[in-house]
Amino acid sequence: MAQAISFLEMSGKLRPVDYAAMGLLAYHLDTLIAASRELTEKGVLLTSSKGNVRKNPAVDVANGATRQAMEIMQNYGLTALARKRLERGEVKEEELSPLDQYFKDLAN
CA 107 to CA 104: how far, in whole Å? Predict the structure, then answer.
């Protein structure tokens, strides 16, 4: 996380208002790690005391955290494709998530 923040600070793309989004990114990554540990320990499928097999709820938690983290990472150019798009100026206003739009409006 520190490397991502350093990269954004050095490239001049991180403003004080963006630290909230970085906090959310850290939260989602932490959630993903916790869900991944759960899946490693207990597996993707759980068996109840009655013998019923069901999906481990941590699967949905991990998937949701991954989606949220990737959205933030893409918006801040923290993936290879997102960096190329930002360099070419291909990011459009309508691509901003509601959260990013909120923070952008606060900054203006």
Answer: 5
pTM (2 decimals)? 0.70
36 C-beta neighbours (distance < 10 Å), count: 15
Q: CB–CB of 2/25 below 8 Å?
A: no
Beta bridge partners of 55: 45
Q: What is the mean pLDDT of residues 54-71?
A: 96
DSSP designation for 79: S
What's residue 90's pLDDT? 62
Nearest to 29 by CA among 56, 2, 57: 2
C-alpha 43/C-alpha 58 separation (Å) is 9
pLDDT at 38: 97
